[in-house]
Write a structure and sequence with these properties.
Helices cover 76% and strands 0% of the residues. It is mostly helical. The longest helix has 31 residues.
Amino acid sequence: MTSVMSAPPVFSQRYRSLSVGIVALVMLVAFEYLAVATAMPLIGRELNGYRLYGLAFSGGMAANVIATVVGGRWSDARGPFPALWTGVGGFVAGLAVSGFAPTMEVFLAGRFLQGLGGGLFNVALYVLVAQAYPSAMHPRVFSALAAAWVLPSVVGPAITGFVAESWSWRWIFLGVAVLSAPAALVMWRGLPEPAGQPREAMGRAFLPRFAWGVCAAVGAALLQYGSGAAGAGVLLAGAGLVVLALALPRLLPRGTLRAARGLPTVIALRGLAAGSFFAAEVFVPLMLVRERHLNTAEAGLALTGGALAWSLGSWIQGRRPHARALTIRLGATLIAAGICVTTLVVVPATPVVVAFAGWLVAGLGIGMVFPTLSVLVLELSAPGEAGRNSASLSIGESVFAVVAVAVTGALFAAYGGRSWVYVTCLGLLVVMAVTAAVVGGRFEHRREPGTMEV
């Protein structure tokens, strides 16, 4: 068996076109993601949408739940290509809707469409990696995908801030949509021939799973919308939590919510890491702009540092593929420590540079955790299950992040930007990261049969 160290390079001649195309598209996704996080204070002000601030982030995450349920089964039944191209098309269409949005509600619709497209693309990408690259290359492939965030991280937030302040934030969304076309063309030229996979029906078992996926998305939307509203909003948020509590166990491997050994732990870890990091990232530019009076471009530099550190952490895990338990536990600990340090910026006497340093630490941690879990989910998948298990990975990531953003967003909406509110919100996210560090080794390098529920 080919070892990780002796596997061919990701950009060797055989894989060059495919790798370049995938990396180019991921770079554009990264640029768009960082652009939204950087420009949202300005977008919320221009579209009078601060009351829906959190929904701009979690709305796309909720859409991911539906898309990944469909994309996982679709990719297993028909191969990754149909879901892949549908996802790219939906992502580009969503960018156009957001770029031309006259109101915050239309902007959110575009974000939802981006989430649908991104969910299909993401789960199909996992299946494509599993089929197109030998298993020994998987750690380095996922490291390359994480490294695709480097250039957007270096120039993305600064460009976003400059363009948004000098012209309009709309040009960011429309520009990414235009550049996606040549990136998709390069990827298409490098795609391998279909592996002769039979065309299967989606199956009766898929329909209940799809229905539960829709329920989970509705629950996530109710939770997020209600968390930002008063009065009846509390009832909406409560209803959303109930729906999620009913739907989520039907969409994830049995035992995920208690971190049972094997694949369930991998899914749970992804959710805990994503929830803690992404929800905290919502607050980073907000604190720097509203509490320390930085402009959008300056606040975006913190996200730049975090994404650069993410790439470094991913590179580190790619070079130590056999120390996965240690990598996950260390990475989760760094996320918790980084959030703690970043929170200190609410204290006026604390130098602003402390927040930048803290987010570097958090970025390094998430970079170590995410690619490691991506490799593990493919290793623990039997033939024909990569799509479904990858969908579960994305669903857990999206739903945990939605809940984390909703809960912290509700606290922020209810009590405003007081120092103790920031500390409380980010403290809850630290608890999530610490939990991930505690259960970080509860996986096995073998598949446990019968862990999936329908």
